[in-house]
Specification:
The complex is a heterodimer of chains A (339) and B (336). Chain A is of the alpha/beta class and 339 residues long. Chain A has a domain at 19-105 and 220-273 and 281-338: P-loop containing nucleotide triphosphate hydrolases (Rossmann fold). Helices cover 33% and strands 23% of the residues of chain A. Chain A is built from 13 helices and 12 strands. In chain A, strands 6-7-8-3-9-10-12-11 form an 8-stranded mixed β-sheet, with helices on both faces. Chain A has a 4-stranded antiparallel β-sheet with strand order 2-1-4-5, covered by helices on one side. In chain A, helix 4 packs across helix 5. Chain A is globular and about 70 Å long. The termini of chain A are far apart. Chain B has 336 residues and is α/β, with parallel strands linked by helices. Chain B folds into 2 domains: 43-70 and 85-226, Rossmann fold (3-Layer(aba) Sandwich); 247-336, no CATH class. Helices cover 30% and strands 19% of the residues of chain B. Chain B has helices at 57-64, 87-93, 114-124, 134-144, 161-173, 191-208, 219-225, 243-248, 253-261, 270-275, 305-309; strands at residues 7-17, 30-41, 46-50, 72-77, 80-81, 97-100, 179-183, 211-216, 228-233, 236-242. In chain B, the strands form 2 sheets. Chain B has a 6-stranded mixed β-sheet with strand order 6-7-8-3-9-10, with helices on both faces. A 4-stranded antiparallel β-sheet of chain B has the order 2-1-4-5, covered by helices on one side. In chain B, strand 9 and strand 10 (236-242) form a beta hairpin. The chains are: A alpha/beta (339), B alpha/beta (336).
Chain lengths: 339, 336
């Protein structure tokens, strides 16, 4: 893999994680008040690893990804704190580097492939645009590489379909076009924001299998943003569970889902019906997720939490701390939940 | 479930015209969104209908409450064909069969208060609840679905998605129906709220003696709530049977692929489920131009010449105990 043509004075660490986010905060200043979308999120991503960021709507998972990609419209959005380290270099402190890295070394695919593609250009032209601009390829060379990329993401009859327009593709094929576009410049990190949510389950299985094959073959790191617990167990090595703009639990997927250390994760597991068991009792989480314009005091989960103790949880914000090796939870009573 | 079915649907067909000729004279072709669907619903039963987008499951829901006019077929409810009813008779039927929708935002009038939304049906069906009792009864219904009676004067935008779905459920209950058609009632909700609404649907089913036709694309949700399940593909039911028969002993290749494709969140089951996954090739064919013979043959690993020529009927060929529309139906146990 060839990395991006970075400026010579920037030294990238070989030992640091590929991407590390530290204490990131993002807010949106609206006429109706400030929305605290991300409140001190931290995670690290190693080479070749798949990290799932799991959360319900309004948990801040997509805004976190948008901050990494510098896609937040400002105003109203402001990154108010934290660091985004790419091989140890803080991208928030070096805007020029940030813009070199995003789109080349860190790329992103979205849930809605139809609106992410331009309807008036052929898919071949859109995939090839980056090759012509960033790699200085001729149209002819770019076209040849585009066909290779379309074959890589298993679009049938790639050579014949390169001149088709987005509306001529099915939902699953459009998502493959998006993936081909994201892979064009050999990224080190691919961020997939709900990549299969809009797809039917049989097509979702195809796209998940493709992403896994590509990750293994190309050695990429993958950040998978999703609300679907099944997609997390299926694809990810580690998971960060988000709630009200914070990471509330983190660890390897098997042990987090097997034995949660945060009441929210536990509640999600007991809310999920399973296709493999008919007569299971659902134990939902009471109430609804909070508005990010009005996050509860102390622990943001306390109004819905069965472990809640009034004085501690209402007043003190629990930090994300290690419960056992490799497992972190932001709950005052994590040990009680875990045991 | 014994005795006469509460509802019997036979040979339901719904075609949508593809387009009209200039000046609106005559139609150019048609898409068969629903192509000969038959099923029965017993008293107190929940029949789940599961399938991917475009399979016709929502069109079935809409024709049953005559929001869409069927092209052919009958639906017998208490000895009378719903599809042949006069407008006057149909109005009476609305008391018996109600519907709740997927979109809790689009299905409530934003300019009506919750109280007006819930009591509206009583203004139309005036003989059901006396005027002076309406407010009290609406309050009771709101309390029953987990809302506060004092919220009666609020507007839909002041509620969360889960609360709005509760309002939709309260509205469906006002005329004491026998059947509620639930069209993707929890798909727009977050996981933590989805379970609340599913539990509520199960509680009121017992309290009000309801039968449900529960339509969804989520296999886990459908299994959880259903007694029997029909699987739809390209306008047809390809397999139907008891919840256990469909999920544990599916015989149609499409059902098997669908079940194996759904990611399993259970950490102990996920790896085995994934290793045995059937990943189907390609997409669902265009319903305006369906394949000859068996609809599913273009994606099926068992397909041969017979499948291209002969449309398989929905019958129990090999004594599996439930019907499947496949020439080569055989049991495949899911890995778990």
């Amino acid at each position: 893999m060839t990395g991006p043509a970075l400026e010579p004075d920037v030294t990238l660490s070989a030992t640091a994680p590929v991407l590390e986010v530290r204490d990131l905060s993002v807010e949106f200043r609206t006429p109706h008040g400030t929305v605290n979308a991300v409140n001190g999120v931290s995670f690290a991503l190693d080479r070749g690893e798949t990290l799932a960021i799991l959360g319900e709507s309004g948990s801040g998972k997509s805004v976190t990804a948008q901050a990494v990609m510098d896609l937040i419209d400002s105003p109203p959005g402001f990154v108010t704190g934290g660091e985004i380290l790419f091989h140890g270099q803080d991208l928030l402190a070096n805007r020029h580097l940030h813009h070199q890295v995003r789109g080349q070394s860190i790329t992103m695919i979205f849930q809605d492939a139809l609106s992410a593609l331009n309807p008036v250009f052929t898919v071949g032209w859109q995939i090839g645009e980056q090759l012509r601009v960033h790699r200085g390829m001729s149209r002819r060379d770019a076209r040849a590489r585009v066909i290779e990329l379309m074959e890589l993401v298993k679009i049938p009859y790639a050579a014949a379909r390169v001149d088709d327009y987005p509306h001529e593709f099915s939902g699953g094929m459009r998502q493959r076009v998006m993936i081909a576009m994201a892979l064009a410049l050999d990224p080190e990190v691919l961020i997939a924001d709900e990549p299969t949510t809009a797809l039917d389950v049989t097509v979702q299985a195809q796209v998940m299998a493709l992403l896994e094959d590509l990750q293994r073959d190309l050695g990429m790191s993958l950040i998978l943003i999703t609300h679907d617990l099944g997609v997390v167990t299926d694809m990810a090595h580690r998971v960060s569970v988000m709630y009200a703009g914070r990471v509330v639990e983190e660890g390897d997927v098997y042990s987090v889902f097997k034995n949660p250390a945060h009441p929210y994760t536990e509640g999600l597991m007991s809310s999920m019906p399973k296709a493999t068991h008919g007569d299971q009792k659902l134990v939902p989480i009471t109430g609804a997720p909070p508005s990010l314009a009005n996050i509860p005091s102390g622990c943001p989960f306390h109004p819905r939490c069965p472990y809640m103790r009034p004085d501690t949880c209402v007043n003190e914000h629990p930090p994300l701390r290690e419960v056992v090796a490799g497992r972190r939870s932001a709950c005052h009573f994590a040990e009680e939940v875990f045991s | 479930m014994t005795g006469e079915p509460l509802l019997k649907v036979d040979g339901l067909v719904k075609e949508f015209p593809l387009g009209r000729r200039l000046l609106g004279v005559g139609e150019i072709g048609a898409v068969k969104a629903v192509d000969g669907v038959s099923f029965e619903l017993a008293r107190g039963e929940t029949l789940g209908i599961v399938g991917e987008s475009g399979c016709g499951k929502s069109t079935v829901a809409k024709t049953l409450v005559r929001l869409e006019e069927p092209t052919a077929g009958t639906a017998t409810f208490e000895g009378e064909d719903i599809f042949a009813m006069s407008p006057k008779r149909l109005r009476k039927l609305r008391r018996e069969i109600q519907i709740i929708f997927q979109d809790p935002y689009g299905s409530l009038n934003p300019r009506m208060t919750v109280g007006d939304i819930v009591t509206e049906a009583w203004d139309i069906h005036r003989d059901t609840v006396p005027r002076r009792e309406r407010k009290k009864r609406a309050g009771e219904l709101l309390e029953r679905v987990g809302l506060d009676a004092s919220m009666m004067n609020r507007y839909p935008h002041q509620f969360s998605g889960g609360q709005r779905q509760r309002i939709g459920i309260a509205r469906a209950l006002t005329l004491r129906p026998k059947i509620i058609v639930c069209d993707e009632p929890v798909s727009a909700l977050d996981v933590s709220v989805q379970a609340q609404v599913m539990n509520l649907l199960e509680e009121i089913q017992d309290d009000f003696g309801l039968s449900y036709i529960f339509i969804a694309h989520d296999l886990s949700v459908v299994r959880h709530i259903s007694d029997r399940v029909g699987v739809m593909y390209l306008g047809r039911i390809v397999e139907i049977g008891d919840e256990k028969a469909i999920y544990d002993e599916a015989t149609h290749p499409y059902t098997q692929a669908l079940l194996s494709a759904a990611p399993n969140p259970d950490p102990d089951e996920a790896a085995a489920a994934k290793a045995n996954r059937i990943v189907l090739e390609g997409d669902v064919p265009n319903p305006a131009d369906p394949p000859s013979g068996c609809n599913f043959r273009t994606r099926c690993w068992k397909a041969d010449e017979k499948c291209a020529e002969e449309d398989p009927a929905l019958i129990d060929r090999f004594g599996h105990g439930h019907p499947a529309a496949c020439h080569y139906a055989e049991v495949r146990h899911p890995v778990a």
